[in-house]
Amino acid sequence: MGRLFWKFFLCILLAQVTAAVGIGSAFWLRERARSQAAELDTGPPAWIALDAAAATLRHGGLPALRGMLGELQRPQVLVLDHLGQELLGRAVPPGLAAEARRQLASGEATRGVRRLAGPDGADYIAFVRRQFRGPPPGVIQAGGSPRGPGPGFGYRVSQGAGIVAATLASLLFAALLAWYFSRPIRALRSAFEAAAAGDLAPRFTASGRAGDELSDLGRDFDRMSARLDALMDGQRRLLHDVSHELRSPLARLQAAVGLAHQQPDKIGSSLDRIERESMRMDKLVGELLTLSRLEASPGLARTEQLDLSELADEIAADARFEAGPVVPTIRVQAPGPIVVQGDPDLLWSALENVVRNAIRHGGSGGSVEIVLRAAGGQAHIDVLDRGPGIAEADLESVFQPFFRAHPNKVDGHGLGLAIAQRVLAAHGGSIGAARREGGGLRMRLSLPLQA
User: Fold this and answer.
1) Measuring CA to CA, which residue among 219, 170, 225, 189 is closest to residue 23?
2) Positive or negative: CA dihedral 48, 49, 50, 51
3) Are 115 and 53 in contact (CB under 8 A)?
4) How far apart, in Å, are the Cα atoms of 119 and each of 59, 61, 72, 124?
């Protein structure tokens, strides 16, 4: 058992004991008040009993009154002589006799107390005591000596047994409740220790516990560990892909340098090769830096209003100029200015990557269409080509870094669409791929319109 168990246990036990002490104190104070308070019976049966006692004493004398009091069980009539002794020697609570004398001395109208006059001229005080269930404690006999063990002693024993039973039940309940709360927390602690050691396997998803907060916390931990496992796998895969992509141009660079040493007469072609490979590496490193910056800080450093129609026209013009006569037909269709709020450089990079990807896949003699429209508060840019397309199972994978649907046919590193997806996400938009009827691919970029 850990420290948390004992904290739960002691707190719950303290609450239970406090409640038990409070309830027990309330009962004790009530019984004490009952035993000490002068509670006279003032109901109609008490009046009748006092009238009967007065008539019996007046006509039959003291022996007749004693006989009547001995036979009368309810209501219980108590009669005190001038010495304060009860005629039958019965126990009289001290407060009850004092209250009876106070009422007679005050001259107020009383119903539960009566002053009786005997044939010999002696005065007596008669009153009726209110009856309670169970003998109240602290009762003293007329002579001032407490009664011996009897019903009061058994009553106190039963009270003590009840308190002991309540305390044991509180201990058991506190232990069970503390165990119930501390068990899943101990399981979470062991799961954290396993995660720190590299074991991210789920532990709580299939536990079958009820849907309380602790079980929800365990399932949240499973989701967190699954996400961490996926991120770690992605980082490992990314590191592997980066190493693979850098190894090829480095190998070609080394080969070009070796060829320049061995054949000085061909140093010009070797330098051209070195320049091309250096540019490829520079482009790859730049794309990796852009991807890393978008993943590390998905927010936008600066935003401004820009027209997507104008942006698409400029990107299409640059693509036509760079590709020369072999470029496929690139057409831009826009209903007019479509204004959004965003980072111009990042949106340029995203749309350019998608358009260049469509040009590479479309091949020479094909056509690429850039169609812009606004609907439902969103600006949509559809980039359409008639290339070989992508398999249905790979439509979601094309946005993963270094993924290439046709690695042996198309040049590139497989980072353009991954960058585009993160740029759109940073702007509150989205990008998706779909196959076209008749062949080809449709890339749809969606951005919130500027109000």
Assistant:
1) 170
2) positive
3) no
4) 8, 6, 22, 11
Q: What order of strands is seen across the sheet that includes strand 441-448?
A: 329-333, 367-375, 378-385, 441-448, 430-435
Residue 273: partners with Cβ closer than 8 Å, 6 or more residues away: 252, 256
| Alpha-carbon distances, residue 200 vs 59, 100, 191, 227 (angstroms) | 101, 83, 8, 9
In this prediction the pTM is 0.49
Q: When comparing pLDDT for 445 and 360, which is higher?
A: 445
- Give the residue numbers marked as catalytic: 244
| Alpha-carbon gap, residue 56 to 46, rounded angstroms | 15
Cβ–Cβ < 8 Å for 141, 91: yes
Per-residue model confidence as pLDDT tens digits over 94-116: 777 887 788 778 776 566 788 88
Q: Average pLDDT of the chain?
A: 77
Question: What is the amino acid identity at position 113?
Answer: V
Whole-angstrom Cα distance, residue 238 to residue 248? 16
Q: From 14, 12, 8, select the one nearest 182 (Cα to Cα).
A: 8
- pLDDT (tens digit per residue) in 387-401: 887 888 888 888 887
Encoding tokens for residue 127? 């009153």
Q: Tokens 């850990």 — which residue?
A: 2
Sketch out the chain's domains with CATH numbers: 40-129 (3.30.450.160), 213-296 (1.10.287.130), 304-448 (3.30.565.10)
